[in-house]
Amino acid sequence: QMQEEITGIKDTQKQMQEEITGIKDTQKQMQEEITGIKDTQKQMQEEITGIKDTQKQMQEEITSIKDTQKQMQEEITGIKDTQKQMQEEITEIKTDLKVVFNQTADLTEFRTETRERFNIIDKKLDALKLGQEVLAGEMGKQKLDIEMLKKIPV
Q1: Residue 25 CA to chain centroid, in angstroms?
Q2: How does residue 119 score in pLDDT terms, banded at 50, 70 and 90?
């Protein structure tokens, strides 16, 4: 009976040993799975770090773009101000040009009238010269007549 109990204990011990071996195998598999999970977790952590770095770079690029956009907006404002000043200057130039045009028209009209008056004066002078020449001729003729009369004995 003791022999049977010992055999039973040995069988139990053998079953327990087999269970322990099974538990150890399971534990080893679990350890391997944990190691795989840790490796995967480490890879994921590295990927997250890469994503964070990329995100940081993108944020810096966005900030740079915003700064550039702000500078461009300031430049556009400056261009608009310059354009407004130029438009005002163009308006002034147009006004001045109208004044010059009107003055030129007045001067052209004055010049035309002056030429016409000079032409009239020239004609009158020509007429006076002709009259003077006629008079001079008449005077010359009268002098001749006087001289001839002087030569006639009285």
Answers
A1: 75
A2: very high
Residue 1 pLDDT exceeds 80: no
Residue whose C-alpha is closest to residue 82's, from 74, 95, 71: 74
Categorize the per-residue pLDDT at 90 as very low, low, confident or very high, splitting at 50, 70 and 90.
very high
Please measure the distance between the N-terminal and C-terminal CA atoms of the chain and give it in whole angstroms: 220
Q: What is the pLDDT of residue 52?
A: 97
pTM, full prediction: 0.47
Q: Residue 25 and residue 23: Cα distance in Å, rounded?
A: 5
Tokens of 10: 């040995």
* Cα–Cα distance list, 144 to 41, 129, 154 (Å): 146, 22, 18
φ, ψ of residue 122 to 5 degrees: the values are: -60, -45
66, two tokens:
């915003």
SS3 of 152, please? coil
Using alpha carbons, list the distances in angstroms from residue 78 to 66, 68, 81, 82, 87: 18, 15, 5, 6, 14
Nearest to 42 by CA among 34, 31, 53: 34
Instruction: Find how far residue 141's CA is from the centre of its chain.
Output: 90
How far is the C-alpha of 19 from the C-alpha of 149, rounded, in Å? 185
